[in-house]
Each structure stands twice: as structure tokens, then as C-alpha cells.
Specification:
The protein is mainly alpha-helical and about 180 residues long. It is about 75% helix and about 0% strand. The chain is built from nine helices and no strands. Helix 2 crosses helix 3. The longest helix has 26 residues. It is elongated. It starts with a helix and ends in an 8-residue tail after the last helix.
Length: about 180
């Protein structure tokens, strides 16, 4: 049923994501959908959990391939976030407006970001992790909404800079 919800969100937009639409797409009854997801909010929560779980797993898989040294989680996060967008990224983009309208769902997303930041900043300075995080998220969002000002060469340079930042600390500029 979550696959059907993803298909509806991608094909028709998250605004058309209803329990009826998911039931039609899944070839199930609305009651069958409601057995698993009693409300649209429950369906959206399950979709968010699926997206964040996939994202965590992808970062962990990348981290497992990197040397065990400080900044490994940060580098894995950057590498995972700057890869070519996949279905999960497109679903995330489709859900932005719906999630923004729900304080409960926004709280879940905020919790995910907080947990992720704790992980990527666990063995590096706050400054390094924070700068890499906001720059990576900014690039991801611009690309998601297809508003990035960067051409392919410039994007590659931004990715190089983000990777370098993930690998080495910043100079101290607090004076």
C-alpha cells in the first residue's frame, strides 16, 4: 500500500494522496487501506518513516565503505545527499507542501533532522558539521525543485568542496 501511495504522490501530486486514491492504485478496498492506515495522517507518517529509514540505510551503507576515521558519518551523509535524485527524493519533494501543513508531521521531520545531525556531528566540530549540513541540504533542495543556479561543472565543484569539508576541519574564525 505504501508503494501505491508513492505512485499516487508521484503521478498525481501529494495533494491528491487520499485513502481512496491509494485503494484504487493498490487494487484494494478503502477498508483494506484503512485497516493499515486509519487516517491520511497515519499514511503520511508511514511514508515519512519509510523515506527516513531508506535514507538512514543508504548513509550507513556508504559509511561502511569509508575508512573508520573522524568525519566518516558526515562524509557518508554528504555523499548520499549529493547523489543523483531517486524515487525517495521525488516523493520527499511531493510531500513538502502536505508535511508543511501538519505540525505533527513537521515535528517528526524535525526529529529526524535532529537525530541525523547528532550522528554526523558526533566526531567532528559543530562548525564543520553545521556548515556541511546546511550547504548539502540547500543544494539538495535547489536540485529537488530544479532551481539550482549551478551548471554541471559548477555543481561538481560544489560537491568537491562539500566532500573536502566533510574530510577536514575548518580553521578557527572565532576571534
Amino acid at each position: 500500500m505504501l508503494d501505491a501511495a508513492v505512485a499516487v504522490a508521484l503521478e498525481q501530486g501529494a495533494g491528491k494522496l487520499t485513502l481512496d486514491a491509494v485503494a484504487r492504485r493498490a487494487g484494494a478496498s478503502k477498508g483494506g487501506v484503512m485497516y493499515n492506515f486509519p487516517t491520511k495522517e497515519a499514511l503520511l507518517e508511514a511514508l515519512l518513516e519509510r523515506l527516513t529509514s531508506h535514507n538512514r540505510q543508504a548513509s550507513e551503507a556508504i559509511a561502511a565503505e569509508l575508512p573508520d576515521q573522524p568525519g566518516r558519518a558526515l562524509k557518508a551523509y554528504v555523499m548520499n545527499s549529493v547523489r543523483d535524485p531517486d524515487e525517495d527524493d521525488r516523493v520527499s519533494g511531493a510531500l513538502v507542501a502536505v508535511v508543511n501543513g501538519s505540525p505533527e508531521l513537521l515535528q517528526r521531520v524535525a526529529g529526524y533532522f535532529s537525530q541525523r545531525f547528532e550522528i554526523i556531528s558526533g566526531d567532528v566540530s559543530f562548525d564543520r558539521a553545521a556548515l556541511a549540513h546546511v550547504a548539502t541540504e540547500g543544494l539538495w533542495l535547489m536540485e529537488l525543485f530544479q532551481i539550482s543556479p549551478f551548471n554541471a561543472v559548477q555543481r561538481a565543484r560544489v560537491v568537491q568542496l562539500l566532500s573536502a569539508l566533510a574530510e577536514q576541519d575548518l580553521p578557527d574564525v572565532t576571534a
